[in-house]
Each structure stands twice: as C-alpha cells, then as structure tokens.
C-alpha cells in the first residue's frame, strides 16, 4: 500500500477528501429530503383541494 | 422530465467521481514541487468551478424567470442557491486545508480566496432574502433581482479584490506556479470536473422538482406528477 | 390634467423629502452621530498612540462610514411604505425610478453629505496626516452616493419584511466591498503622499454605474415589494 502513503501531506489530503465526500453526500440527502417534504405537502394540498 | 433525467446524471456523476478519485489519489504521480499535497486539487478545483458556475446558472435562470415570468426558471434558481453555497464552502475549506502545508498558514488574504469568501456572502444574502419573504411569488422575484445585482457586481468585486491584493500582498508568498500539468494528472482532474458538474445537474433536477411541486397550482399536472412518484 | 415634467417632479419630491427630514432632524442625524461614535471607539479599544492611530485611520474612517450608511439605509423607504405614500408614487404618471432617485438624493444630502463634512474633524482626531484630508473628503463625496444608491436598492427589496435590519446589512455589505477597498486605499495613498487620481476615477466610475443602473433596480424592487 505504498501508493496510499502521502507522507507528511496525508492528513491534509485525506481530510479534504473526507470533507468533500461528507458535503457531497449531505447535499444528496438534503435534496432528497426536501423533495420528499415538498411532495408530501403538495399531496396534502391536492387532497384538501379535492375535498373542498 | 426531471424524474427520468435525474438518475442518469446521478449515476454518471458517481461513476466519474469514483474514477476521478481513483485516478487522482492512487494513479497520478506526486507533484515534483508539492509532493502529494497537490492531490487536494482534485476536490478543490471542481468545487471552485461549481461555486461560480452555480451562481451563473442561478442568476441567468432568475433573470429569465423575472423577464418572461416563468415559474420553472425561478424554481431552478431557488434550487441552485444552496448547492452553490455548499460548493463555495467546500472550495474555501479545501483551499484553506491546502494552504496549511503550502503556505504554512490556514488562511491568507489571497485574492482568489477573498473573492470566494465574498461569493459565499452573496449566496447567504440570496438565501436569507428568499427565506425572509413568505409569499413565494414575491420571494422569487425579489431574490431574482438580487441575483442579477450580484452578477453585475461579481466582476467589480473580482477586479477590486485583485487590485487590493497586488498592493498589499507581501512578496513572501509565491503563487503556486502552474508547472505544465502532466496528462496523468490532468485526466483525473477532467473526470472530477465532469463528475462534479453532472452531480450539480443531478441535485438541480431533484431540488428543482421539489420547488416546482411547491409552486404548481395546476391540479391535473400535480396529480400526474404525484402519481408518477407514489 | 397637466402633468408636471420630469425635472419638476424630481425637484418636488426632493424638496418634500428634505422638508420632512429637517422636521425630524434628530433621526436624520443618527448616522452622523454613529459615524463619530464608532471612530471614537478605536482609540479607546486600541491605544491613544498617534502613530498607531495614524496607521489605522484610513481603515477606521472608511469602515465607520460604511457602517453609518448601513444604519441610514434602513430608514430610507420605510416611513413612506408604511403610510401609503409609496403606493401613490408608484401610481403617479412620473417614472417611479426618477422619484426614488429623488428620495435617495434627499437621503444622501441628509445622511451622506454630513459624513463628508465631518471627515476632517474625525481625521484630525485620528492623527490622519493633513495632506490626506482633501483626498479623503473627495473620495467620501464620490463614495457616499454609491453607498446610498446600493442601500436604496436593498432597502427597496427588503422594505416591509419583519427581519429587515440584519438582512439589509447582509445584502448591502458584499456589494459595497469594492467601494470600501478603493476608498480606504485613496486615503491610505494620500497619507503616503502618492498620486490618487486613479483611485478617485475608479470611485467616480462606480458612482456613475450605480447612478445609471440602481434607479431602475430600485423601482423594480419597490414594485415587487409593494404587491
């Protein structure tokens, strides 16, 4: 595994990569959550309008 | 349309980013000047690119939405803002982490870093204005106007910060030169860049769909759209 | 009905706002008092040493002026929107952009111009070299209209919102950062005895840009805020 050894730069490289991965994943989770939330809200509004 | 297109962008982005990461972190040779520290470029440069690209997408769709009163464009602008802000944050954070081994300090008042910081403030202002207005229609138009004001300002900010920087920057910090980049280093960077861009469009479609659903008042359309997802 | 011309409408609006402003002179003086008070804080917080103060004076003067203009921007349109005058202006046959430009001009005369006049006093108190004072005044005279105009745009966008104050600063500050950079640099260069016409031209260019574009943006923003 010597090509994974970045010497003294390792913590910097790995922390940036990890941070990027966290932000990228969080973005996906947040977007899906928002879609689910707003879909649910739209569904409720539709039901309310149909019953009215 | 967004339901059919979004997964494509999503998977393509995943594929490209994984390929780029393997290429960049494992296969590419270390830089002769910066050693392995240069590998941060593979996350930093695509983030910085997207932070600006997202603003342009946001402002241009906001302008189209404002001029031709198209709700879809306002939805896209609203969707682009949080994504762009997160990439701006990422560009700043990775730039700062990169700065520590290269410059010996977490932060320097480098022109590009400073301009990026102002860009983050512009995103915050845009999102804060949108959040402060309850009426969706008014929020769309007010924030669209703000985005246009911001986009006119960005070149001025960029120029002024660069000018300020060249006057104040002590010569001790030499710019990280661009030693003509190796193809082996360049290919993973291009893959990452493409992957991040696909990822951005994936998020734009998912978030844009959410925003459209919250704005749409046409019953039949809503029924069809909701029926497709349930 | 005879519709008054553009110049007439502009003048009428300007005179009305100035008259109203002078009736509440205490309120109009707030930004000026704030400007002087913020500059007083620096010697108290750092040290009264003349060398130190002279070194930081350009920054202090400009940051204080910027903060004072933030404070001023808040009150620019609020009163008129609350009592319905703004609706009348929006319905008037004159272009709204012109009337809002007149309001901003009156506002600048009440809050921006006093900062320019006060600058020598503040500069002297901070041991700013005497030769930098005329340049600082000229730079402030060119920069404060830009600050008022940008403040006007953002005030028009946020007028009527509950959490207006903090939001307004968040919107204005990134946009006016170039003004701060060039303005402070002009004062700095002048106190070093350097040629400043280049920086002053840049400030003038920013002012002209703001003057030509912001009335339109202000009017558009106000129409969005009103309906």
What do you see in this structure?
The complex is a heterotrimer of chains A (52), B (230) and C (227). Chain A has a domain at 28-52. Helix content of chain A is 81%, strand content 0%. Chain A contains one helix and no strands. The radius of gyration of chain A is 22 Å and the shape is rod-shaped. Chain B has a single domain, classed as Up-down Bundle (Four Helix Bundle (Hemerythrin (Met), subunit A)), CATH 1.20.120. Chain B contains seven helices and no strands. Chain B has helices at residues 2-27, 41-68, 71-103, 111-132, 136-168, 183-215, 219-229. The two termini of chain B are 16 Å apart. By secondary structure, chain C is mostly helical. Chain C has one domain. Chain C contains nine helices and no strands. Chain C has helices spanning 6-23, 25-45, 50-74, 78-82, 85-91, 96-125, 132-158, 164-191, 197-226. Chains in contact: A-B, B-C. Chains A and B meet through helix 1 of A and helix 1, helix 2, helix 3, helix 6 and helix 7 of B.
Rounded Rg of chain A: 22 Å
Largest interface comes to: A-B, 34 and 42 residues
Determine Rg of chain B (CA atoms, Å).
20 Å
Query: How many individual β-strands of chain A?
Result: 0
- What is the subunit organization of this protein? heterotrimer
What pattern of helices and strands is seen along the backbone of chain A? H
Compute the number of helices of chain A. Answer: 1
Helix content of chain A: over 70%
* Whole-number mean pLDDT of chain B: 84
Output mean pLDDT of chain A.
83
Structural class, from helix and strand content of chain A?
A: mainly alpha
Total E-strand runs of chain B: 0
- Uncertain ranges of chain B: 171-175
Share of helix among residues of chain B? Answer: over 70%
Q: N- to C-terminal separation of chain A?
A: 67 Å
Main pleated sheet of chain A: none
Q: Any idea how many domains of chain B?
A: 1
Number of helices of chain B: 7
């Amino acid at each position: 595994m010597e090509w994974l050894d970045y010497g003294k730069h390792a913590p910097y490289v790995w922390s940036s990569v990890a941070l990027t991965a966290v932000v990228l994943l969080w973005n996906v989770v947040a977007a899906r959550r928002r879609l689910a939330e707003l879909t649910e809200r739209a569904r409720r509004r539709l039901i309310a309008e149909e019953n009215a | 349309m967004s339901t059919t297109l979004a997964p494509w962008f999503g998977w393509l982005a995943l594929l490209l980013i994984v390929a780029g990461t393997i290429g960049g972190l494992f296969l590419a040779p270390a830089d002769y000047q910066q050693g392995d520290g240069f590998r941060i470029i593979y996350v930093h440069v695509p983030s910085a690119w997207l932070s600006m690209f997202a603003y342009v997408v946001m402002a241009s769709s906001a302008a189209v939405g404002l001029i031709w009163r198209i709700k879809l464009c306002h939805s896209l602008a609203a969707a682009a803002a949080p994504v762009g802000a997160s990439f701006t944050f990422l560009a700043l954070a990775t730039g700062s982490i990169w700065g520590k081994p290269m410059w010996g300090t977490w932060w320097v008042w480098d022109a590009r870093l400073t301009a990026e910081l102002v860009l983050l403030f512009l995103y915050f202002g845009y999102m804060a204005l949108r959040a402060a207005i309850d009426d969706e229609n008014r929020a769309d138009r007010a924030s669209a106007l703000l985005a246009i004001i911001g986009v006119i300002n960005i070149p001025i900010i960029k120029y002024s910060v660069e000018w300020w920087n060249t006057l104040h920057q002590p010569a001790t910090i030499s710019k990280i030169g661009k030693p003509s980049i190796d193809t082996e280093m360049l290919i993973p960077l291009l893959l990452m860049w493409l992957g991040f861009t696909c990822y951005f469009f994936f998020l734009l479609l998912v978030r844009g769909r959410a925003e459209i659903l919250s704005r749409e008042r046409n019953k039949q359309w809503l029924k069809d759209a909701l029926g497709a997802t349930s | 009905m005879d519709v008054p011309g553009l110049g007439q409408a502009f003048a009428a609006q300007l005179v009305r706002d100035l008259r109203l402003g002078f009736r509440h002179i205490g309120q109009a003086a707030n930004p000026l008092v704030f400007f002087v008070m913020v500059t007083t804080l620096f010697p108290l917080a750092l040290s009264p040493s003349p060398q130190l103060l002279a070194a930081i004076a350009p920054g202090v003067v400009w940051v204080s002026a910027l903060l004072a203009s933030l404070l001023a921007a808040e009150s620019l349109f609020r009163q008129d929107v609350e009592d319905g005058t703004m609706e009348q202006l929006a319905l008037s046959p004159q272009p709204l952009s012109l009337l809002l430009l007149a309001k901003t001009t009156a506002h600048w005369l009440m809050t921006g111009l006093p900062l320019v006049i006060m600058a020598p006093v503040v500069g002297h108190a901070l041991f700013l070299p005497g030769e930098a004072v005329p340049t600082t005044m000229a730079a402030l005279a060119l920069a404060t209209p830009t600050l008022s105009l940008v403040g006007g745009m953002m005030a028009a966008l946020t007028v009527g919102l509950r959490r207006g104050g903090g939001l307004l600063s968040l919107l204005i500050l990134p946009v006016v950062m170039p003004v701060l950079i060039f303005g402070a640099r002009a004062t700095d260069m002048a106190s070093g005895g350097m040629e400043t016409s280049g920086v002053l031209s840049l400030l003038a260019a920013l002012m002209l840009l703001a003057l030509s574009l912001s009335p339109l943006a202000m009017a558009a923003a106000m129409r969005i805020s009103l309906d």
